Amino acid sequence: MSKEIPYKIYLEEHEMPKQWYNVRADMKNKPAPLLNPGTKQPMTLEELEHVFCTELAKQELDDTTPYIDIPQEIQDFYKMYRPSPLVRAYCLEKKLGTPAKIYYKFEGNNTSGSHKLNSAIAQAYYAKKQGLKGVTTETGAGQWGTALSMACSYFDLDCKVYMVKCSYEQKPFRREVMRTYGASVTPSPSMETEVGKKILLEHPGTTGSLGCAISEAVEAATTTEGYRYVLGSVLSQVLLHQTVIGLETKIAMDKYDIKPDIIIGCAGGGSNLGGLISPFVGEKLRGENDYQIIAVEPASCPSLTRGKYAYDFCDTGKVCPLAKMYTLGSGFIPSANHAGGLRYHGMSSVLSQLYDDGYMEARSVEQTAVFAAAEQFARVEGILPAPESSHAIKVAIDEALKCKETGEEKTILFGLTGTGYFDMYAYESFHNGTMSDYIPTDEDLKPGFDSLPKMD
Amino acid sequence: MSKEIPYKIYLEEHEMPKQWYNVRADMKNKPAPLLNPGTKQPMTLEELEHVFCTELAKQELDDTTPYIDIPQEIQDFYKMYRPSPLVRAYCLEKKLGTPAKIYYKFEGNNTSGSHKLNSAIAQAYYAKKQGLKGVTTETGAGQWGTALSMACSYFDLDCKVYMVKCSYEQKPFRREVMRTYGASVTPSPSMETEVGKKILLEHPGTTGSLGCAISEAVEAATTTEGYRYVLGSVLSQVLLHQTVIGLETKIAMDKYDIKPDIIIGCAGGGSNLGGLISPFVGEKLRGENDYQIIAVEPASCPSLTRGKYAYDFCDTGKVCPLAKMYTLGSGFIPSANHAGGLRYHGMSSVLSQLYDDGYMEARSVEQTAVFAAAEQFARVEGILPAPESSHAIKVAIDEALKCKETGEEKTILFGLTGTGYFDMYAYESFHNGTMSDYIPTDEDLKPGFDSLPKMD
User: Fold this and answer.
1) Nearest C-alpha of chain A: how many angstroms from B263?
2) Is A399 near chain B, with CB under 8 Å?
3) Which positions in chain B touch A176 (Cβ < 8 Å)?
4) CB of B5 closer than 8 Å to CB of B256
């Protein structure tokens, strides 16, 4: 007889993962290396540690070590807000009338409101250990900046956040959370950096962009003694830290003999999806088990479903290394979608390679359908989801309704990355019927593709 | 050897309480009965069920049954977001350098952001069971309204919220959360009720008050077929439902052989404090155990520390029954303190009687000191606390620092009722140094005391 599944499965402290899992070690086709944008040669450790903390640069380059110890200090911090619950969505199943069994791993129950804290604390730890004074970063919607502020506050590190100006002005709450944790928050573009001054001279009225904020943060890090730059997604080191999500999920599921048939996650830069699926993909890569894996992205920013697999700049300022990824081109300007965390032109190199090799599929979904799914979920499961997370909810509901038609009792697992408390303007526009469903035409995508670097 | 205490203690589902505890049953001096404001006679069941659901009216009057079964449907809903964690504040202890052991019961990890959901779901359940179409209520800061919206959505009940107009305009996020859960939210005073029209005629520019919103909600409930009025605090039925907080805490502590020396909670209408302390006070009343219990209130609205123990109106509109309580008088206008949930002129009759009988003490604290404690707590414990909850944090830190001086290893327990995500304007004014510390003079208190009803 199988054990009765509780509404929420929490691991005990002694069951929590003590190592991260590096899925690259099990990949036959390794993700392509980061390239120096000038020489087009693979970035060396020496080059990377100019920008990143040394230990993190090593993790970025390491595609052979399958398990990497989680330092005790990070494990201790994880205990403050982890394990996150694996929730059986009994109420949603009942509402849908589906024979499918739905589970979600909920990462929103911490003050940063999302999974971002898992990597922020790791990056802050290595920065502190290296004896640095502080770190710099950029933030758009603010989830990453909030998470990093919390992590830096814990380790008593300076935290300098360049926040896209329009978010700085429109999202004062996020800004104040960061200030509560002692971070300095600068609207970008600013007069504090050369690149910021240049952009302000050329475009005096600009409200900023993520690409510009990245450039400012990198410049601030590389020109200030004792500082390094940190990033919340896309990089392989970030995916590595985020595997704590998937590892906890796997342990909890194994404990109750649950095997997911379908695993679903939203994908912006790939940090959450990569973290959730890594241990499952590892089994798939080693031929031990099979899972259907679905990456969900906004129809307005469809890097996997409509992008090209090519080397590209990670930032619009073109100061970062080149990464091979599914991309719309760094010159692509995403529309003002409310899922700010998914408005990125590219995708993690690890996920791009897995997708190209057929280990996962991808779907794009439209905004109002996503908010309708979010509201349906909120009303029965209680949790008010972030717009980003709601992309995964939408596809999970779609799959559960397919099971209702076919009668299949599939087990569906999805990642619920965060809460939407700071996204109520988006919900308001959904309620008021003013939300749009922009899908770029092929013509709209052209400038992005034209911006791809020539690699000859 | 005592067991090692984890950072967070979660009960398993089968350990969760199946009954609420009615502390009135163990009180020798019962709380004074509610009185009909016209006849000054105790309210009968018949009178109460005109306004409240019948089962809730019975719970309001029942001061003899010690344990009351939690209906299975409510237990199922509790499983969606409970048990809430009992957290050992290791990081705060370390930061303070105190030998005290600090625990907090954290009620903020649900979308309503606070403990209010514990009673909202119970009240919605009884309304549904009675075959009602819907319920009405008022909300100020919006935590109660949000919780009730969630509960009504779950049971498919109409939910009509009268929201104090200035909050409606200044807190659009809370309003949108309620709308997400399908509630109708009306700025109060409105033209929908007689009392609203009357007030708007007399004071055309008014931004509303809680007292006025209560009057509108009661009128709407009593003049609309199939509706009743529900309330989020003060009433004994609410305290009863909130004992799930204290019961879970007690079970978790007993499991690890922990006995608190001091128990601390913030007190507005008393719902959280009453819920947390009830099982402990029960032992105190029965002479089985002793605990120091501290109610914390804002210096700007000091009902316990500077109020009178007297019969008073529960609302400024004077339409509700009279309750005997520690009160500043329904005519007292609290200043614009940021802890909206603590800006109530009175206090639960149960807590008032316990306080009068010496079973608990009370302290008042000033606003900027509260926010300083909140920020200190957030930085080490990760959680961004609500201003209300931070009153308890302030006194817990004070007590822990006393232990540091004396070397005593006291065990301190406090209630962390909710999160401050929707209170960032308050944090902003703290950061900007524009927060004030208003304490009413005796002269300021006089109009409130003068408004107390003559009881002859």
Assistant:
1) 22
2) no
3) 424-425, 427-428, 431
4) yes
For B346-356, the pLDDT digits (tens) are 999 999 999 99
Query: How many angstroms away from the CA of A132 is the closest CA of chain B?
Result: 20
Please calculate the CA angle B304-B306-B311 and round it to the nearest 5 degrees: 65
DSSP codes joined into one string, A281-350 = HHHHHTTS---EEEEEEETTS-HHHH-EEEEEESSTT--SPEEEEEES-TT------S-GGG--SS--HH
Please give the radius of gyration of chain B, using alpha carbons only, rounded to the nearest integer.
Answer: 21
* Rounded Cα distance, B186 and B208, in Å: 12
At A370-401, the pLDDT tens digits run 999 999 999 999 899 999 999 999 999 999 99
The span from the CA of B190 to the CA of B195, in Å, is: 9
Q: Would the CB atoms of A177 and B375 count as touching at under 8 Å?
A: no
Closest residue by Cα to residue B166 from B125, B213, B129, B219: B213
Per-residue pLDDT, averaged over B278-287, amounts to 98
Written as one string, the DSSP assignment of B57-121 is HHHHH--S-SEEEPPHHHHHHHHHH-SPPEEE-HHHHHHHT-SSEEEEEE---STT-BTTHHHHH
**B134-139 vs B227-229, strand pairing mode:** parallel
Percent of chain B past pLDDT 70, that is, above it, reads 99
Check if the beta carbon of residue B130 is closer than 8 Å to that of residue B55: yes
Q: What is the CA radius of gyration of chain A?
A: 21
β-bridge pairing A322-327 and A308-313: antiparallel
Angle at the Cα of A49 from the Cα atoms of A47 and A51, rounded to 5 degrees: 90
Go through the domains of chain A in sequence order and give each one's CATH number. Answer: 21-70+116-229 (3.40.50.1100), 83-113+243-450 (3.40.50.1100)
How far is the C-alpha of A379 from the C-alpha of A396, rounded, in Å? 16
Tokens of A360: 């996962």
Residue B2 scores a pLDDT above 60: no
Whether the CB of A421 is below 8 Å from some CB of chain B: the reply is yes
Q: How far apart are CA B250 and CA B275, in angstroms?
A: 12
Say how far apart CA A79 and CA A381 lie, in whole Å.
25
Joined tokens for residue B263 = 């128990």
pTM of the model: 0.93
Give the end-to-end CA distance of chain A in Å, rounded to a whole number. 61
Of B7, B91, B424, the CB nearest to A176: B424
Packing angle of the helix pair A117-129, A143-155 (nearest 10 deg): 40
Count of CB atoms within 10 A of residue B95's CB? Answer: 16
3-state secondary structure A10-59: CCCHHHCCCEEECHHHHCCCCCCCCECCCCCCECCHHHHHHHCCHHHHHH
Distance set, CA B211 to CA A220, B2, B438 (Å): 53, 51, 22
CA distance B11 to chain A (A): 10
Burial of A28 (0-12, 13-18, 19+ CB in 10 A): exposed
Asked if A419's CB is within 8 angstroms of B379's CB, the reply is no
